Backbone:
């Protein structure tokens, strides 16, 4: 990131890998600037992967956008994919922003490993299902119906629990890592960012 006042809407992305690049490229063509934040301990990012570090990392990125670059919350779109939805939901439950996009979200770590889990236990990591009701920004949930890593039921539950959810995108037949290959993915992102947000 380069210092200076940035005018276009910012996209803060807790990434999980290169599979999120198509959406970033498309968001950029819609006159949006991107700010990509990798998870600690992954890719070229230093640090140790932990739940605490996920939250600390996105907080640092948020503070940098707000203070160093002078970006106001109404110009920030949070985008999280898979495990990246965990810090995204956490941050969005504490700060209002232009919008939140949750791509293949999980309810909680325990619910991924043990699908029959119905409540959150004190040892359950990543309890996004308990935080989503505190999100006051518009939220777009995207999930593949054939997701083999995080079951489709997670996306559905997050959507149902979210007070500001917009029309979701359920990609019929899509798995965990191929949603971006479906035409309706980019179409829905464009529609949401360009026409459904208050400042679009």
Residues:
């Amino acid at each position: 990131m380069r210092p200076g006042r940035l005018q276009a809407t910012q996209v803060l992305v807790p990434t999980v890998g290169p599979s999120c690049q198509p959406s970033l490229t498309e968001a950029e063509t819609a006159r949006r600037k991107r700010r990509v934040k990798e998870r600690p301990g992954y890719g070229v990012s230093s640090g140790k992967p932990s739940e605490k570090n996920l939250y600390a990392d996105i907080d640092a990125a948020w503070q940098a956008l707000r203070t160093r670059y002078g970006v106001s919350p109404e110009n920030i779109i949070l985008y999280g994919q898979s495990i990246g939805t965990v810090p995204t939901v956490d941050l969005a439950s504490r700060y209002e922003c232009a919008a939140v996009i949750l791509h293949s979200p999980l309810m909680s770590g325990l619910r991924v490993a043990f699908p029959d889990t119905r409540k959150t236990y004190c040892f359950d990591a990543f309890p996004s299902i308990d935080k989503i009701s505190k999100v006051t920004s518009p939220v777009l949930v995207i999930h593949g119906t054939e997701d083999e890593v995080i079951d489709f039921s997670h996306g559905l539950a997050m959507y149902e629990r979210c007070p500001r959810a917009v029309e979701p995108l359920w990609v019929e037949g899509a798995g965990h890592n191929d949603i971006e290959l479906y035409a309706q993915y980019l179409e829905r992102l464009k529609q949401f960012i360009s026409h459904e947000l208050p400042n679009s």
The radius of gyration is 16 Å. Confidence is low (pLDDT under 50) at residues 1-7, 17-22, 27-32.
